[in-house]
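Progress note, sequence design subtask.
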């Protein structure tokens, strides 16, 4: 049994190492992670690859750090996931507090009302993902 659940991981370039750890854990739970640094070939049409992968994603994990708050691509990916795809958005904070995230001028209302987690608590998300993957495999 294989699962086609695709988890798109949005992050700033400064956070690639941490994002790779998240991607590894997503893969270990049976889902397919999409991480631009690992899944977009050098020389490829970057924006098209991002758009195509986001269009296939089942979930969006967004790693918010002090650097990520001002990255336009992250906000565009969130907008696409929320407005167009209507997929779950998991907000993971690292190096910033929930209050700092909520009070940031770019943070939209629809993200302020989510169950926001700290990176130290991400194992809860991984366990829930594992259950969703197992449930999906049951019906394959």
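Output:
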């Amino acid at each position: 049994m294989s699962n086609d659940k695709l988890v798109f991981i949005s992050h700033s370039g400064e956070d690639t190492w941490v994002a790779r750890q998240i991607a590894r854990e997503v893969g270990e739970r049976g889902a397919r992670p999409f991480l631009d640094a690992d899944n977009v070939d050098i020389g490829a049409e970057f924006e098209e690859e991002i758009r195509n992968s986001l269009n296939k994603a089942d979930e969006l994990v967004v790693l918010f750090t002090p650097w990520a708050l001002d990255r336009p691509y992250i906000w565009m990916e969130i907008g696409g996931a929320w407005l167009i795809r209507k997929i779950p958005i998991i907000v993971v904070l690292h190096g910033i507090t929930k209050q700092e995230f909520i009070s940031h001028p770019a943070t939209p209302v629809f993200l302020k009302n989510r169950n926001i987690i700290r990176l130290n608590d991400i194992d809860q998300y991984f366990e829930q993902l594992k259950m969703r993957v197992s449930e999906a495999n049951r019906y394959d």
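The beta strands are 6-10, 32-34, 59-64, 89-93, 117-118. Work on this subtask will continue into the next period as scheduled.
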